[in-house]
């Protein structure tokens, strides 16, 4: 009569489907189409009221194809805004303006019912769309003839971390170059036809426009079902993502990384090296050259996220790594304890990337934007460490000839995708003031709702014009899905030209598989080389200089802080969720005290730290109790002296 389902050690339990069977074999699902009552709810719970029986539908009358049935007026309005922008760029907009005027006049003209039912509204709508597309293709920013992009089926497990593990991959696709996209007869050229069926990620074009960096894993249909994926030696080595390089003409293919680690999101640095994301940090207490070198000769254990997973779904942490152009000189340049995503090189030569920072606080938000020097020194907040909406600041890229960036406001519990947002850090580093929503019709996923369509992988041409991918399907829900689950289609997105006025012009769409990550095939400016501050030959320690602990500690009387406690955060070495349960959130990281140091009378402190260890600080009173705790992590590189002004130092706006 009743079925009770519970997990005793957590405060929520959510299901997509319940099946109930009588004792014995082969019986029907007794729960099918039966009502169920929830005695408790969680933040993921949804009410499912029984649907009322539908009344028999009356025969539908033929729909009139009238002008009001199509958003023609909105298409014309957006087209005129684009025309005004392109006129300022020297484009002859007279033909487009003439066409918009003609469509407007036709929409206002009286129309006989017979005309309306024939071609009226539909033809006017497509006429306006054709005019906008022709105008968009005349944009002088399209000073290239080819677009590099990737075809790939999204992951079987829609989650911002799981989407980058090779064992959840789906086969199909490859790297492609689209030619003639401005005309009526575009052409495709595949660069990766020699690969076995697998999955491809995030192509990056070299600064001279001749080489392509990308990630690939071979697809093994049985690997997703392996019960214990923590036993990596029992999995095929090429079921993990690895970095490859190939010429844009399809020549010179070479593999850059090996081992049972996922390596992806490779980006060329101005000096010729490569920065990328990898699970290679693993359980090493000190991240650096030695931790990375150990992964080249053996399969080392992974470290795991605190708030999810299990042996069937181990959620291995990945962070920033660097190597030279040939795949040598591998080293971890981040010592962060949790996930990092989507690095890119800014106009000034630094690296911006996303970081999941939830030390002693709720895990759901706080996928913020950080920056670092290419050698891993001076990692610092760039935007959003205390901003709940948007939730995940992913795929940030510098805009040409601008100090602004474009990013995708994404979700925690789905794949990357959402609303396109312009970030002006000169306005600030928190909240919505620095943001301009380029696609306001798409809510910030999860924190504001779930959008019916979404954008991803923007490539900026200017502050108003972008290449991107767009999906007319909703973001898929967070759960392991079958390859044929209609909620996670393999063909959700295509590549488009988008502008800040709302015009979306199709460049390529494959009816069978998603197309994304469009990149213009042309040379691009090489940012300046940021000099390395770390000394690779120095001992594995650095120094920290605090100018004044009271700067930022409002209300704390000078002389109250006697010492600083330095607390290190260790990697989590087993994949079970919230195990062990630590702290008020049940998912705090393991920690240990490195030591305490005195604070001088003027509020300053100076001390040495081991390199590659993530740490935070506590200001201690004279009785040894904590007055203030840092809610983030920092670390030093070999030979580096890291300094800060004081506790809760405000990050200065600008670059």
3D architecture notes:
With 655 residues, the chain is mainly beta. It has five helices and 31 strands. The strands form eight sheets. It has a four-stranded antiparallel β-sheet, with no helix packed on it. It has a four-stranded antiparallel β-sheet with strand order 4-5-6-7, with no helix packed on it. Strands 8-9-10-11 form a four-stranded antiparallel β-sheet. A hairpin with a 7-residue loop joins β10 and β11. α1 packs antiparallel against α2, α1 packs parallel to α4 and α2 runs antiparallel to α4. The longest helix is centred in the N-terminal third of the chain and has 17 residues. The radius of gyration is 27 Å and the shape is globular. The termini are far apart. About 3% of the residues have low confidence.
Specify Rg, calculated over alpha carbons: 27 Å
Span between N and C termini?
65 Å
Average pLDDT score:
90
As a percent range, the share of strand residues is 25-35%
Q: Which strand order spans the largest sheet, edge to edge or round the barrel?
A: 3-2-1-24
Number of strands: 31
Low-confidence runs: 50-67
The backbone outline, from C-alpha atoms, is: globular
Mind describing the biggest β-sheet?
A: 4 strands, antiparallel
Helical residue percent band: under 10%
**Main structural class:** mainly beta
Number of helices: 5
């Amino acid at each position: 009569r009743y079925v009770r389902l519970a997990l005793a050690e957590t405060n929520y339990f959510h299901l997509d489907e319940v099946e109930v069977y009588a004792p014995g074999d082969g019986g029907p699902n007794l729960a099918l189409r039966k009502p169920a009552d929830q005695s408790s709810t969680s933040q993921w719970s949804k009410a499912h009221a029984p649907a009322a029986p539908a009344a028999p539908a009356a025969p539908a009358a033929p729909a009139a194809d009238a002008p009001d049935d199509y958003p023609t007026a909105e298409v014309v309005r957006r087209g005129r805004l684009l025309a005004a922008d392109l006129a300022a760029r020297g484009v002859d907009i007279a033909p487009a303006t003439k066409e918009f005027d003609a469509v407007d006049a036709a929409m206002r003209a009286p129309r006989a019912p017979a005309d309306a039912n024939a071609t009226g509204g539909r033809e006017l709508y497509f006429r306006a769309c054709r005019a906008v597309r022709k105008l968009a293709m005349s944009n002088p920013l399209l000073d290239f003839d080819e677009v590099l992009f990737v075809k790939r089926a999204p992951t079987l497990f829609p989650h911002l971390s799981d989407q980058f593990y090779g064992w959840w991959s789906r086969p199909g696709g490859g790297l492609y170059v689209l030619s003639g996209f401005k005309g009526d007869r575009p052409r495709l050229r595949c660069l990766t036809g020699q690969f076995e069926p697998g999955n491809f990620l995030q192509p990056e074009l070299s600064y001279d426009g001749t080489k392509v960096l990308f990630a690939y894993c071979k697809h093994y249909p049985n690997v997703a079902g392996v019960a214990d994926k923590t036993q990596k030696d029992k999995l095929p080595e090429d079921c993990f993502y690895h970095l490859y390089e190939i010429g844009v003409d399809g020549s010179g293919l070479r593999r850059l990384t090996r081992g049972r680690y996922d390596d992806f999101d490779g980006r060329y640095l101005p000096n010729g090296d490569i920065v990328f994301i990898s699970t290679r940090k693993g359980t090493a207490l000190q991240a650096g050259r030695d931790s990375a070198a150990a992964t080249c000769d053996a399969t080392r254990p992974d470290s795991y996220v605190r708030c999810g997973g299990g042996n069937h779904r181990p959620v291995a942490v990945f962070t920033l790594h660097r190597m030279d152009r040939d795949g040598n000189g591998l080293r971890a340049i981040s010592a962060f304890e949790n996930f990092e995503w989507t690095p890119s090189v800014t106009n000034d030569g630094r690296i911006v990337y996303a970081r999941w920072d939830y030390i002693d606080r709720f895990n759901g938000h706080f996928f913020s934007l950080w920056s670092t020097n290419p050698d891993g020194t001076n990692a610092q907040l760039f935007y959003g460490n205390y901003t709940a909406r948007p939730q995940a600041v992913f795929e940030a890229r510098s805009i040409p000839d601008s100090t602004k960036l474009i990013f995708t406001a994404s979700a925690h519990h789905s794949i990357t995708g959402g609303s396109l947002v312009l970030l002006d850090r000169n306005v600030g580093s928190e909240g919505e003031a620095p943001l301009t929503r380029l696609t306001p019709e798409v809510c910030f996923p999860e924190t504001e709702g779930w959008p019916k369509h979404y954008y991803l992988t923007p490539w900026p041409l200017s502050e108003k014009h972008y290449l991107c991918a767009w999906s007319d399907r909703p973001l898929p829900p967070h759960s392991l899905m079958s390859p044929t689950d209609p909620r996670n289609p393999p063909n959700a997105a295509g590549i488009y030209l988008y502008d800040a006025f709302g015009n979306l012009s199709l460049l390529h769409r494959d009816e069978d598989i998603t197309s994304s990550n469009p990149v213009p095939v042309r040379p691009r400016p090489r940012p300046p080389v940021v000099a390395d501050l770390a000394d690779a030959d120095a001992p594995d320690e650095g120094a920290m200089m605090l100018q004044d602990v009271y700067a930022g500690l409002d209300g704390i009387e000078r002389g109250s802080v006697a010492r600083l406690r330095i607390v290190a955060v260790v990697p989590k070495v087993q994949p079970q969720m919230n195990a062990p349960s630590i702290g008020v959130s049940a998912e705090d990281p393991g920690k240990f005290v490195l030591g305490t140091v005195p604070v001088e009378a003027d509020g300053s402190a100076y001390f040495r730290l081991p390199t590659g260890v993530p740490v935070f600080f506590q200001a201690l009173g004279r009785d040894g109790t904590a007055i203030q705790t840092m809610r983030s992590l920092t670390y030093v590189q070999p030979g580096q002296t890291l300094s800060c002004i004081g506790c809760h130092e405000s990050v200065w706006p600008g670059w």
